[in-house]
Amino acid sequence: MERFYLITGHVSRIELLVPLGVKLVQLRIKDQTEAEVRRQIARARDFCAVEGAQLVVNDYWKHALDLNCSFVHLGQEDMDQADFAALRRAGVRVGLSTHDEAELDRALSHDPAYVALGPVYPTLLKKMKWGPQGLDRVTRWKNMAGDTPLVAIGGLTPERVAGVFAAGADSAAVVTDIQQAQDPEARTRHWIKACA
Ligand SMILES: Cc1ncc(COP(=O)(O)OP(=O)(O)O)c(N)n1
Ligand SMILES: Cc1ncsc1CCOP(=O)(O)O
Ligand SMILES: [Mg+2]
Questions:
Q1: Where would I find the Thiamine phosphate synthase/TenI domain in this sequence (predicted)?
Q2: What is d(CA 183, CA 187) in angstroms, rounded to the nearest whole number?
């Protein structure tokens, strides 16, 4: 699995940052109309295909199916509504969020492309009911997930990625550190080097 996993809130960010060498990118759109969501997913799909990057569509699994996307990310609440059989029939890979052991068991029962654990460190992105999980928990998750790749997420920075990889994560995902960087392109290059 790719070690650097970029998560962005708008397709324009994908167009800016993927050409720097990002190979795995999630489009995580919140609070937009359905029409705007579809427009961005289609644009991101076409752009990533040309760039040779893997697009992951967050939340909108129905649009991903309609628009022939190949990878979605779902949280635990998203999973309640999702048609896993339809996704499997269409060959769409699925990454799943987990925060505790019951959620990990549930996620693994769907044979996901990866499981994500977070927040590993405190995150500014959104209010979550889960506190920071810490690096020991990353190691524990890796042991329980077996062959399923593990994505670490939450409060990550280039300075912290060596620690999460050493603890057992296969991939490090980031939103805020790049979204809020003064120079997102320079920060993305920094991340790519740190994850190499
Ligand atoms: C790689 C990755 N891990 C976790 C999440 C969070 O998904 P979810 O819990 O559904 O929360 P939202 O991102 O939808 O707010 C993710 N998107 N990607
Ligand atoms: C959506 C989400 N799920 C677990 S942590 C998190 C926040 C994203 O991380 P960051 O702290 O990089 O914004
Ligand atoms: Mg979600």
A1: 10-178
A2: 6
For the Cβ of 82 lying below 6 angstroms from any atom of ligand 2, the answer is no
Residue nearest to atom 2 of ligand 2 (CA): 154
Best residue for ligand 1 mutational test, from 73, 99, 117, 125 (most atoms within 8 Å of Cβ):
73
pLDDT in tens, 73-98: 999 999 999 999 999 999 999 999 99
Query: What residues does each domain of the chain span?
Result: 4-195
**CA of 75, nearest ligand number:** 1
* Count of CB atoms situated within 10 Å of the CB of 21: 15
The CATH number of domain 4-195 is 3.20.20.370: no
CA 65 from centre of chain: 18
Q: Does the model's ipTM exceed the 0.90 cut? A: yes
